[in-house]
TrEMBL record:
<dbReference type="Pfam" id="PF01926">
    <property type="entry name" value="MMR_HSR1"/>
</dbReference>
<protein>
    <recommendedName>
        <fullName>G domain-containing protein</fullName>
    </recommendedName>
</protein>
<dbReference type="GO" id="GO:0005525">
    <property type="term" value="F:GTP binding"/>
</dbReference>
<dbReference type="InterPro" id="IPR006073">
    <property type="entry name" value="GTP-bd"/>
</dbReference>
<dbReference type="InterPro" id="IPR027417">
    <property type="entry name" value="P-loop_NTPase"/>
</dbReference>
<feature type="domain" description="G">
    <location>
        <begin position="6"/>
        <end position="100"/>
    </location>
</feature>
């Protein structure tokens, strides 16, 4: 059996990660979806999808919700996601950062930097899927209008898909309000994965500088969390301790 390319989908709860996986797999009930604000994906769940003759394993992950005060994503979800990425023996071929438009949340760049720059050390391509754009006259116009805000944070994705992950309400004739946008979105995400995944996956080695906190609170890893992810020294130290034990 051919080895699957691992694609990790991450982002906040409610961003549409599970809906995105269901859409591209063409199986509406493959990944469970919850309308509850707390979300329903606690541990990562892998789903196999074949695109253009290649097998991809899509990993649906826990939502990276902000902690108290909106400063730092919840550490338990971060630790689980780091543990997943580190445990993938076949390596990681692509990260997809799923976020809900049309507004950009402040936590977006913190999540981006934590996984793309720090944990994956800029070695794994990262693409953005922006959901919730079904009401836009032209979904693709959203990115040119907003990319400056991403670039200001140093977020330069390998690829972007401006999409909807819902068909919307059912019409009287049996169709759905956003059927056309949904089918268009499916093709965009397929193309995103095919075009930007690594043919030679990158294996995530343990981030050694997290281990430094065992002997010093001012280790390089902690300082990178403070500087890049805008955490306080205390928050970075607490998270670093958790990650060092994974």
């Amino acid at each position: 059996m051919a080895t699957a390319f691992n694609v990790v989908v991450f982002g906040e709860s409610g961003a549409g990660k599970s809906s995105l996986i269901n859409m591209i797999s063409e199986s509406p009930n493959l990944a469970p979806i919850s309308s509850d604000a707390r979300g329903c994906t606690f541990n990562s769940s892998p789903y196999n999808v074949t695109l253009a003759g290649k097998l991809f394993k899509l990993h649906d992950t826990a939502g990276l919700d902000e902690g108290e005060g909106g400063r730092v994503p919840k550490s338990d979800a971060i630790v689980k996601l780091y543990s997943l990425i580190k445990s993938l023996d076949a390596g990681v071929s692509l990260l997809i950062f799923c976020m809900r438009g049309p507004r950009i949340k402040d936590a977006a760049h913190k999540n981006w930097r934590l996984f793309h720059e720090i944990i994956c050390q800029n070695q794994v391509p990262i693409a953005i899927a922006i959901t919730g754009l079904e009401a836009e006259e032209d979904m693709d116009e959203w990115w040119p209008k907003n990319k400056g805000a991403f670039q200001a944070y140093g977020m330069n994705p390998a690829g972007v898909a401006c999409i909807t992950a819902t068909r919307g309400k059912r019409n009287k004739n049996g169709s759905y309000k956003f059927d056309d946008e949904y089918e268009e979105s499916k093709l965009k995400v397929w193309k995103l994965i095919r075009s930007h995944h690594l043919e030679r996956p990158w294996r995530v080695a343990p981030v050694q500088w997290f281990r430094q906190i065992v002997s010093t609170v001012a280790g390089e890893g902690i300082q990178q969390l403070v500087a890049r992810c805008e955490m306080s020294q205390e928050q970075a130290t607490d998270l670093g301790k958790l990650l060092a034990n994974v």
